[in-house]
Amino acid sequence: MAIKKNIKNIFILGFIITIVLLSIIIFVNKTLDKEREKVIDTQIEEVINGFNQMQTLLGMGDTYGNKMTCLIFENMLHDLDKSIWELGQRIDLYRQTSEEFFKSPYYRQQKKFFNEKEVFYLNLLRGVKQKCGFEQPIILFFYRNSGDCKKCDDQSFVLSDINEKIDEEISIFSFDMDMNLTTLKILNQYYEIDEYPCLVIDDKRYCGMQDKNIIIKNLCMVANISVCQEYQ
Amino acid sequence: MNPTYMILVYLVWFLATYFVVTLILVLIANRKNLYENRIFDDAATLPFVSIVISAYNEEQKIEDTLKSLKKIDYNKIEFIIVNDGSNDKTSDVARKYLDDKRFILIDNSNNKGKAACLNQGIKIAKGEFIATMDADSMASPDIIKRTLPYFDEHAIGAVTVSVEARNPSTFLQRIIDLEYIIGLSLFLKLLSTFNCLFVTPGPFSIYRSSVLRKIDGFDEDNITEDMEIAFRIHKSGYKIKSCIDTKVRTLLPDDFKSLYRQRKRWYSGAIKTYYQHREMLFNRKFGYFGFFIPFNIILITLGIVLFLYSTYLGLSKLIENIYYYHYTNYNFFENFLDWNFDILTYGGVSVLSFTAFLGTLLIMFVGLKYARIRYKEKKIGMLGYPFIFFLYQIFWVASYFSVIRGKKVKWR
Questions:
Q1: Mean pLDDT in chain A?
Q2: pTM, whole model, 2 decimals?
Q3: For B131-158, what is the mean pLDDT?
Q4: Closest residue of A to B24, CA-based?
Q5: Torsion angle of alpha carbons A66, A71, A72, A78, nearest 10°?
Q6: Which position has the higher pLDDT, A148 or B174?
Q7: Distance (Å) from the C-alpha of residue A153 to the closest C-alpha of chain B?
């Protein structure tokens, strides 16, 4: 009888310990979610700082003239391009990691915010490109989430791969059309996009899945980038 | 990750962790009683013991087995060798031992199957206790003197011993060696503390002869007769104890194919045995045993579903990735070099998998410690042990399918 009671107690204790371990794991996961938010917050803050600096620079252009603006802009362009692309990638990566994170209003809000800022930066970049005569090609990537657009993930993979190689020579903007932002809808209408994924390379539209060779070929038609020789 | 998958992962993790945690607690609670160090040595009351061995085409291995029997330190004993219609010289090897009056040979010309041969031996056995042994196993000299004291209550129907590997040499054998030490010795010992021992391993187990006769010996239609008989022992109200003070050493499968065949037989047999004795499941009459077995079935089944689901998801991801790469001229290597570690890209499933892996390591280290094995001696096997469970999932899947398809799994 005593042994039976002892075993029963062990079973109960085992259950309690398992519940405690499970709670610890759930807590670790929640902490990881929080850390993910923090990383994205920090990165967004960096991007916003970059945008603010950019606005100041444009203001300086009025005072000191285009020469000064272009000089500083040239130096900043690469860093900001990189931050924006990395932020987009990270948000996407964390979305795949944690379902809860993806569903959270926080994620959607950040994604909206990010897309809005991207449009703002795109406007700046286009303006400065004209003013300063920069050759840097601009790629706009319009997509929907993978449920509605199977090829969008494929296209994102190809763009990441290209960006790894020539990130200093191009600017890529990715726009999530599921965010229903008015600015994105206007861009969509302007470029007459009717299917996803869709790329716009220096104002020229390429809808449907584009592989690496085709994108580089199209890039090489508008600018002389380092990989052009390799692909000729 | 989709919600169904996550629920499944958490469920399997919870059940498996509960199982491991409880067993570790049982181990801690019984750590001083694992080795009882009792020896039956009262010459006046020594009961007669019979050891029955069924042998089929064992000419290469049976010699060592018979030699080990001769070394058994017990006077009132007989050895009954039942040749199961071997095509080789098994019976000639056994005949050499007949000069020793303790040896008896039943030489069948037809192949009857292991259980039938054991029953033949049991029928003529004179022992108050009857041990059954595999023809490729070697018993320790003290095996009878160590196991008999465990029959200290009338309710003890059978006693099992530690099963260890005989000269493991390949990497696979060294891993299985560890599995036997932990799974077939210590694990069974722990289960016996709450009367849930569900198998009396074939390499060596000893039974009270009255119990064997009462339950009509082994089931000749079951391919895991050593498991099936354990169920009937429980059903008849008897207990099974485990003695890890002594051991039997047995030969291990030497390659993947033999291991696959062995496990397919074990697991298919287990599924059939569960079904055969389904009335015992969730039956309070059989105490913890009635609940432990269904818990085990649920855990294994959910584990298999999770394994299949994970394999499906993993393969889909792999195919998807390969598909991605065809858009970039298959530049796998370039991307591997660019890979950056970011701990935040690991989510709930990764954390659970990591803790499951730690749990396996814990079982291995704690198991070896309490089995009184030095880590240094088993270091090669320890490298592979945590990964062998993936292999077993494959074997379980194959076994489930063969049972569902009604395919007959042969003993040999």
A1: 83
A2: 0.84
A3: 95
A4: A14
A5: 120
A6: B174
A7: 9
pLDDT (tens digit per residue) in A34-83: 888 888 888 888 887 877 777 777 777 777 777 777 777 777 776 777 77
Cβ-based interface (< 8 Å): residues of B facing A: 1-3, 6, 10, 13-14, 17-18, 21-22, 25-26, 29, 193-194, 288, 320, 323-324, 326-329, 331, 334-335, 338, 342-348, 351-352, 355
Strands B77-84 and B103-108: parallel
Residue indicated by tokens 């020469």: A67
Measured between beta carbons, the chain A residues lying within 8 angstroms of B25 are 10, 13-14, 17
Q: How far, in Å, CA of A178 to CA of A102, rounded?
A: 13
Amino acid at A33: D
CATH (domain of B111): 3.90.550.10
Size of interface A-B (CB pairs under 8 A): 88
Alpha carbons B173 and B162: distance in angstroms, whole number: 17
Counting every residue, how long is chain A?
232
Residue type, B271: I
Neighbours of B355 (CB within 10 A): 18
Show residues of chain A in contact with B340, CB under 8 Å: none
Please count the structural domains in chain B: 1
- Of B21, B323, B343, Cβ closest to residue A17: B21
CA dist B408 and A35 (Å) reads: 54
Tell me the CA distances in angstroms from A13 to A182, B237, B387, one per residue in order: 57, 28, 29
Task: Among A6, A25, A94, select the one facing B355 at the smallest CB separation.
Answer: A25
Q: Which of A180-189, B104-113, B305-314, B326-335 has the lowest mean pLDDT?
A: B326-335
Q: Which residues contact B407 (CB under 8 A, 6 or more apart)?
A: none
**If we measure between CA atoms, which residue out of A45, A48, A189 comes closest to residue A120?**
A48
Whole-angstrom distance, CA of residue A185 vs CA of residue A178: 10
In contact, B143 and B248? CB cutoff 8 Å: yes
Nearest to A212 among B10, B193, B328 (CB): B328
Give the start-end residues of each E strand in B229-336. 239-250
Report the C-alpha gap between B361 and B353 in whole angstroms.
12
If we measure between CA atoms, which residue out of A105, A82, A101, A81 comes closest to residue A91? A101
Q: What is the pLDDT of residue B134?
A: 95
Strand partners, B82: B54, B106
Which residues of chain B make contact with A32, given a CB cutoff of 8 A?
343-344, 346-347, 351
ipTM of this complex > 0.90? Answer: no
DSSP-derived pairing of the beta strands B129-134 and B156-165: unpaired
The DSSP symbol for B56 reads: S
User: Tokens standing for A178?
Assistant: 């599921």
- The answer to whether B355 contacts A17, with C-beta atoms less than 8 Å apart, is no
Q: Which two tokens stand for residue A19?
A: 């519940």
pLDDT digits (tens, 9 = 90+) for B318-354: 888 888 888 887 777 776 666 677 777 787 788 888 9
Residue A181 near residue A112, CB atoms below 8 Å? yes
Q: What is the pLDDT of residues B179-201, one digit of tens each?
A: 999 988 999 999 999 999 999 99
Closest A-chain CA to B324: A154
Q: Which domain holds residue B86?
A: 1-412
The mean-pLDDT minimum among A16-20, B32-36, B292-296 falls in B32-36
**Residue that has been written with the tokens 């509605």 in this structure:** A148
How many Å lie between the alpha carbon of A115 and the closest alpha carbon of chain B? Answer: 22
